[in-house]
Amino acid sequence: MPAAFENLAFAQHRDTLRYATIRGGGYRPSIRRFHVGDYVYLQQTAPTTLDVTAGHTILRVREVLPSGVLLLEGRDDVVWKDHVCNCAPCHLPNVDGTMDPSLAIVRAGLRCMLCGSAGKAARMLVCDRCSRGWHMLCLTPPIYVIPTGRWVCPRCTS
């Protein structure tokens, strides 16, 4: 029994020293350095403490801002903006870096700029400049085939 109390005293002393180091300003967390072209996992908040915080989505660093914010792009060519503290490096050697805009998914609740409806998301185009939604059949003239590459809405072209 005395050995257990001795171990407890050691643990309390170690925790006291650690707390003093952290609160005293001596502790500096290491900031990860990312460069343009690196692949990262975007860490997301976990619903419970048992879940892993790293996501399954691998994003590529498009730009590193001086404030520590990263501009990230996915395979669907959608740009994410998040701080370097929320990113984990991806060291997989076989990451496919090709862009495929057809993988883009219209976010839930996005309304058409012309009719105001949020329905028919499968037939909605999202502008690559302003990220507004436009139903293909609401446009003048209507578009019947999903365009390849980047698409810019009538508002941004004028």
From TrEMBL:
SMART domains the UniProt entry points to: PHD
Record's signal peptide: none
All residue ranges annotated as the PHD-type domain in the record: 109-158
Superkingdom: Eukaryota
Annotated Gene3D superfamilies: Zinc/RING finger domain, C3HC4 (zinc finger)
InterPro entries in alphabetical order: PHRF1/Atg35 (IPR047157), Zinc_finger_PHD-type_CS (IPR019786), Znf_FYVE_PHD (IPR011011), Znf_PHD (IPR001965), Znf_PHD-finger (IPR019787), Znf_RING/FYVE/PHD (IPR013083)
Pfam family of the protein (one): PHD
Keyword Metal-binding in record: yes
GO MF annotation terms: zinc ion binding
UniProt xrefs under SUPFAM superfamilies: FYVE/PHD zinc finger (SSF57903)
Keywords from the UniProt entry: Metal-binding, Zinc, Zinc-finger
PANTHER family to which the protein is assigned, alphabetical: PHD AND RING FINGER DOMAIN-CONTAINING PROTEIN 1
The name this protein goes by in its record: PHD-type domain-containing protein
Species annotation: Marchantia polymorpha (Common liverwort)
Organism taxonomic ancestry: Eukaryota, Viridiplantae, Streptophyta, Embryophyta, Marchantiophyta
